[in-house]
Amino acid sequence: MLMSVPRGFVDREQERAGVLADVESVRSAGDHGVFVFQGIAGVGKTALMLWCVQQLAPSFDLVLDASMGASAEVRTVEEVLELFLLRLGVQAVPPSREGKLAVYRAQTAGRDVLLVLDDVDSAESLEELLPSSPGSVVLATSRRRLEAFELAGFTVVPIEVLTTDFGVELLSAGLAPAVVAEAGADLAAIAELCGNLPLALTIVRAQLRARRQERPADLLGRLRSAESLLAEFVVDEERKLEFVYETSYTSLGALDQKLYRRLGLHPGRQFPRWAAAALVDEDERDAVPAALRSLVRATLISEPAEPDRETATAARDRYDIHSIIQRHAQGLVHEHEHAADARNARRRLAEAYLEFAVARDLVLSGRLRFGPLFGGAVSPAHEGDGAYARAMAELETERANLGRIVTMASEAGLAELVWQLAEALVTFLFHRGYHADAITVYTTGLAAAATVRRDTGDARPLLKMHAELGTALFAAHAHEEATEQFEQAAQLAGELGDDPAALATLAKMFVWKGLVHRRLGRLDAAITAMERSAALVADPRFPGGLRVREERLLDMNSAPILAGLGRTAEAIAAGERAVAHFERDGERGNYAKSVANLGEVLLTADPGQRERAESLLRAALVLEEQLGILDFEAGTRELLGTLLNERDATEEGDRLLVRAAELYELLADRRGAALRARLRAAG
Fold first, then answer.
1. Residues 27 and 138 occupy one common structural domain
2. What CATH number corresponds to the domain at position 307?
3. I want to staple 61 with a disulfide (CB 3.0 to 4.6 A). Which of 111, 218, 573, 661 is the partner?
4. What percent of the chain has pLDDT over 70?
5. Tens digits of per-residue pLDDT, 100-143?
6. What CA–CA distances, in Å, run from 7 to 58, 72, 565?
7. Residue 66: partners with Cβ closer than 8 Å, 6 or more residues away
8. Per the database record, which ranges form the NB-ARC domain (predicted)?
9. Do β-strands 62-67 and 113-118 pair in parallel, antiparallel, or remain unpaired?
10. Could you tell me if residue 48 is inside a domain?
11. CA–CA separation, 577 vs 570, rounded Å?
12. CA–CA dist 524, 349 (Å, integer)
């Protein structure tokens, strides 16, 4: 017999209402209804099913129930039939399977039967046990995601983990109201650590209620500091949570088990198929798609649900592993994997993410790179129309994982990969305005580059990381800290002497110093820095393949400074050269910025240029919105909004300014507060 409905049942209103309505519909039509509650172990499938049984049972002539599956003593169809026949009062149970089925169908004919089966592992089992009378209903649970359930026409009811609010509600059931009120933040953090998994939550709730001297804060500290989180989910020394996943794991084939364990090495819960392939040996990779399907069927991992058209391709190649299940996999790595094998798997994973990032960074920019993969070892991921947008979207999808991979590679001592990963993310993080992420990534990359210099004598990675950390600090308006990084990069460049890449980086440092001076209103110092950069770009030792691009970048960045100094004709000429170059070159981010800068320059020219300035700013805004470059977009909105307000188009102007303030605030840019104050002052 199955247990009664668990106390403290929460949520599932949509699923409950849907099942009850569907049962009523199939019974009214005189059809069989088969409903399979499906989800990972511990998600509450049985609890939901039993709640539905409680509501439905009074309207049926007969309720038959049994547990069939892996979390209990496994029963075959024949054993369940024998159990049911005894409950039906059959005195002489036939010895053969066919005889049992015949008597079972005879006994259920003409009776409305509610059949309740827990832990079913096949559609065939449900088909065989289906009562013979029309209008009978089967409610079943399964931790297996099987195509056969769909093929048979069963109604699959997917059960997901709780939201944090409902997780806290389940966790709080039975606790004193004063404790709940005082420890709300701790309870929410505990729910998050439990992955909002009902079984995990009910276990720690039992601990809170039984261990009277342990407060929620104490429990949270214990869970956070635990060497093995799953080992903390015990009731009277019985590891209830670990057992359910161990059962699923032991049912897998050898390669499926290996891949499952190795997924514990991936630093994020969501992962693409190619990352999973990197975790196994090269001669095993062709079998990875089949292994992933096995893990999906075992509900140890899941696939994204119902992707929309725009994300369908990326979603099709991505999977998700619940945080508690991933912890189980991590424990198996320590138990079954040699440390060298685990380290090699982490290295392959970092290398796979590096190739991914490099291939997309090559699409985004033609800037100078130092990493060896940029020398032709990896091709651009996309070409032609839409290449930039596709590359940015793919990097956005993997953004969290890329940051975690940098940390993982650093902790694994893979310094030579860490700085390359950091370098490969430069354009993406800058264009998206993820300045806090960039500072974290480049700080880690800087430490790795210092290790590379110590171990190999190569100072170029360190030069690159000082430069990029400086740009991230500049973007975050940490001007003093940014200048310090630019100075250290310049010093290293000087030590490297005639190295063309060092010379190019030194030229770039003068540009960034010039931009700092401009930000701080020191326009004379700014244009001096730009002129020093121009002299280095003109040096015969400067890399010839980069010279034209760097000259146009100098034009782009110098134009607003020249305009601010009253050198308007020079500024317009420089801005137009930059626009023409980047329109041809295809670097869409720099093209958008050059168009915006030229529009800004024209605002300082005679009033006859205002119409052209507005046109350019509108064109730049469209580009920036398309590319998702929020930092550029905010600045252009502020310029255009100010221009429109000056000519009394205040409705559109204020709308642009309000959105600019919102974007600045989203980017944690202090210009947001200044713009809000300006808007309030204007009324």
1. yes
2. 1.10.10
3. 111
4. 96
5. 999 999 999 989 999 999 999 899 999 999 998 888 999 999 98
6. 20, 21, 75
7. 2, 75, 80, 83, 84, 116, 117, 118
8. 29-172
9. parallel
10. yes
11. 11
12. 49
